[in-house]
Design brief:
This protein is of the alpha+beta class and 812 residues long. Helices cover 25% and strands 29% of the residues. The strands form 9 sheets. A 9-stranded antiparallel β-sheet has the order 25-26-27-28-37-34-33-30-31. Helix 1 crosses helix 2. It is globular, with a radius of gyration of 29 Å. It starts with 9 loop residues before the first strand and ends in an 8-residue tail after the last strand.
Length: 812
């Protein structure tokens, strides 16, 4: 049965810059240009108030608050007044969000994206009820509730399908059901610049526009597009697709079109105008779609793994520091830290020409990644300063014998501290001078001083929620507080290990060993460090599949250079196809390479812990070291990968994989911005299933239980198998799936770095789960990322005692 679609009567054209914080220019130049653009806009709109017939009089959409606020801070008041006068007459439209973000944003980051909205509303006296995100392929589900809570009732997406795809329906309107169950009206619009591309507007020809419109109208009919208007956007393409100034060449073309063509009429519109036009459609005539708008693009964060790791590690530090910070200086440092980390989360990571030899790529990548480093250091300063003040330490003093221990969370926790000779390891001996600056050193950061993977001895202090305690260091005893013990056993066999002078020498070595704690029995091969089995004593089942990758296995993925070793192996970009949402993904058979040789394997065992460290020779790597730690009293297996790659710009990804023993039909979930999301079930149609950005965890289970992977520095995960390929509608749920931590990738051909230099460290945790209690999994995963907080108390610092963190300090 054919569907009769309404005739399009009107094209609503919104004109904007498309803000990329970089990409076309270095970041400092970009912000200077954005400053110039808004001044040009004011003059241009004032000068064209009566130059064009109705519809062709230009309007401008400010798609983000940051450029406007920076412009206000540097502009004279009379110019600001003229700007807001144009806003009040509808010639300039304001929107609610700071910039175009990524799935790296957590709940606090999303809320901060709306801070500029409040300031602009206060200055202008105008409500801002529209928000937009352009280019990006998704946003965290929580954003829907944050927008509603902040008075936004219309959200516009303009996805770029390059290395992704758009959610459906597109173009179209729907009601997005937020996690709270409330509905947000969404225009799932075309990619930006589609007025220029689809209608060939850059040719400045009504005839060419007519050709383009005929083609596009036929496409809309084929898609059963149900509305009598369409929304398209324009920048200054093809000269400037991104970070574009106002385009004075366009109004005359629109005026000629409206004179010469009967339909559809074209009129400039702000997104506020679009909101009002869409409001004529009854909610009952729109589909309701529920779930996370899971992003495709954010795997690009794995192209800057060190900076991404610092950005992510800064977030829990900022959250904790906000609870204990007291001084103006600490609070100012936190504001600066948040600004830097939020800008790192913005969707632009580099220059459009991402060749590592390009000087502008080098500059934009350095400036981008510097944000994460600066934000992390400022967050570290604010938290250390707050701890030193809470400890009551004088600016200069001598070492003491007490320690401050803090639990900033809303649940009771056991805080681990480094121990030496059976007691807490005091960093400053009693006779030693100590200064505030010496205490605020790198090595004294609690999350550096105590390494949960490598620290041999630890002391445990149990704290109530939102509390602190000062105790004698000698009163904190190391070792297991209960009867839990690590039990290590091995079997011996004769193994030929080397040949010398044509004589084979043999030795008795262990070819299989087991490690037991209360929760697991882990079987491994001592000569190689390979984990053979992981038996969950709680669920009484084997967690590792007998075939597949095994446990925390290094895999390098790359195109086959004998077929096509370039990025075109998996994506052959064609703008003529992309503008009609036709995929450009190519079927490919990637090469998967594992480590080739064990260079060193060592085991450390005591009553309280087991640690397995191995160094491997691996393709593409200068250095690879893997560490596994199992504690007697902990159901979490801690894993660490340290890797340094060869400086190779050729496309590759690095994974650490697990083959999980689950029945077919297994389920999975991950979290994003504080919301747990069930794979497929809690995702919008067309959003990404191939991979996810996990804020804290990714979990898989069947009817008998399963596993949860906790992530720290590196958030990217592939669930079910090697899924870097054309977008999937759903994840296959076959028996014994693969779970892949995905810390490094340079697959992007633009905007993201192609070389990943330096020594990289990635921490993960793996735990068995009995049932999918996602709230409990998320709580444990957050605790995994949140460092235990302790601080030395100097001789004249706070005396022994305890107290509580004031709830008024909690971050909103």
């Amino acid at each position: 049965m054919s569907v009769v679609c309404p005739m399009i009567d009107e094209i609503l054209l919104f004109h904007h810059s498309h803000l990329d914080a970089g990409y076309t220019h270095s970041q400092p130049i970009l912000w200077e240009l954005q400053q110039e653009y808004l001044t040009q806009v004011v003059t241009w709109l004032e000068d064209t108030v009566s130059d064009f017939e109705a519809g062709a009089a230009p309007k401008w959409t400010c798609e983000a608050t940051e450029p406007v606020l920076r412009w206000i801070d540097r502009s004279p008041q009379d110019l600001i007044d003229r700007f807001f006068a144009l806003c009040r007459t509808g010639r300039i439209g304001l929107t609610a969000l700071r910039w175009h973000t990524t799935a790296l944003a957590d709940a606090a980051s999303l809320r901060r994206l709306l801070d500029g909205k409040r300031r602009l509303e206060a200055v202008s006296g105008l409500p801002i009820q529209v928000a937009c995100q352009f280019d990006v392929t998704g946003v965290p589900w929580r954003l829907a509730d944050e927008l509603i809570d902040h008075g936004v009732d219309f959200f516009v997406m303009a996805t770029n399908i390059h290395l992704g795809r758009a959610a459906k329906p597109r173009p179209g309107l729907f009601l997005w059901e937020a996690p709270s169950g409330r509905h947000l009206r969404v225009l799932n619009g075309n990619h930006y610049t589609m007025f220029d591309q689809l209608l060939y507007a850059w040719d400045d020809s009504v005839e060419r526009m007519k050709e383009g419109w005929t083609e596009y109208e036929a496409f809309l009919q084929s898609q059963a597009y149900p509305h009598d208007f369409i929304v398209l956007s324009s920048t200054c393409s093809p000269v400037m697709w991104d970070n574009a100034p106002p385009n004075p060449f366009m109004p005359g073309l629109i005026e000629r079109w409206n004179r010469e063509q009967a339909r559809p009429s074209i009129r400039y519109a702000t997104l506020g105008d679009v909101r009002r036009r869409a409001a004529r459609i009854d909610d009952r005539d729109l589909p309701v779609l529920r779930g996370d708008w899971t992003d495709f693009w954010n795997f690009g964060c794995a192209s800057a793994p060190i900076a991404t790791g610092l950005s992510r590690r800064a977030k829990p530090l900022m959250q904790t520091a906000a609870l204990v910070a007291k001084t103006d200086n600490e609070r100012r440092a936190l504001v600066r830290a948040a600004d830097a980390i939020d800008l790192y989360d913005e969707h632009t990571f580099g220059y459009y020409d991402s060749r590592h030899s390009h000087p502008q790529a080098q500059t934009t990548e350095l400036l981008k990644q510097a944000l994460a480093h600066e934000g992390y250091e400022l967050a570290s300063f604010a938290l250390m300063s707050a701890l030193d003040n809470l400890a009551g330490n004088p600016t200069e003093d001598r070492g003491g014998d007490r320690v401050l221990i803090v639990n900033a969370s809303d649940a009771a926790v056991d805080v681990a501290l480094p121990a030496r000779d059976g007691a807490f390891a005091i960093p400053f001996p009693a006779a030693e001078r100590t200064y505030r600056a010496s205490r605020l050193s790198y090595d004294n950061r609690p999350w550096v001083a105590y390494d949960p993977v490598m620290t041999s001895q630890k002391a445990i202090a149990s704290l109530s929620p939102s509390s602190w305690v000062v105790r004698s260091a000698k009163g904190l005893q190391a070792g297991n507080a209960n009867s839990d013990r690590i039990v290590h056993t091995s079997s011996d066999s004769v193994s030929h290990i080397r040949t010398q002078n044509f004589v084979t020498l043999s030795a008795v070595v262990s070819d299989e060993a087991t490690v037991d704690n209360r929760y697991y029995k882990l079987t491994y091969q001592p000569t190689t460090g390979r984990v053979i089995s992981l038996f969950d004593k709680t669920t009484k089942r084997e967690l590792l599949a007998s075939e597949g990758l095994g446990f925390f296995t290094f895999v390098r993925e790359r195109p086959d250079a004998l077929v096509d070793g370039e990025r075109s192996a998996f994506y052959k970009r064609d703008l003529a196809r992309e503008k009609y949402d036709r995929p450009c993904w190519a079927p490919w058979q990637p090469v998967h390479e594992r480590a080739t040789k064990v260079l060193r394997c060592a085991v450390e065992v005591d009553d309280g812990s087991f640690r397995l460290v191995r160094e491997l020779q691996a393709p593409g790597a200068l250095y690879l070291r893997e560490t596994l730690r199992l504690d007697a009293d902990d159901p979490l297996i801690r894993l660490r990968a340290e890797i340094e790659l060869l400086p190779d710009p050729a496309p590759q990804s690095v994974y650490f994989g697990f083959s999980i023993a689950l029945d077919a039909g297994w389920e999975a979930a991950f979290d994003s911005a504080g919301i747990s999301i069930r794979l497929d079930e809690d995702q919008l149609p067309g959003s990404c299933r191939n991979w996810v950005t996990a804020e804290n965890y990714a979990a898989m289970w069947d009817s008998l239980g399963g596993v949860a992977l906790f992530v720290d520095e590196a958030p990217m995960v592939q669930i079910g198998g090697f899924n870097f390929r054309a977008p999937m509608d759903h994840v296959e749920r076959g028996k014994n799936p693969t779970l892949l931590a995905w810390p490094v990738s340079n697959y992007w051909d633009t905007n993201f770095p192609r070389i990943q230099p330096g020594r990289m460290v990635f921490n993960y945790g793996l735990t068995g789960i009995i049932a999918p209690d996602l709230a409990e999994i998320a709580r444990r995963a957050r605790a995994f990322r949140m460092p235990g907080l302790f601080w030395p108390v100097t001789a004249h610092g706070r005396e022994a005692g305890h107290g509580f963190i004031e709830p008024s300090n909690r971050q909103s």
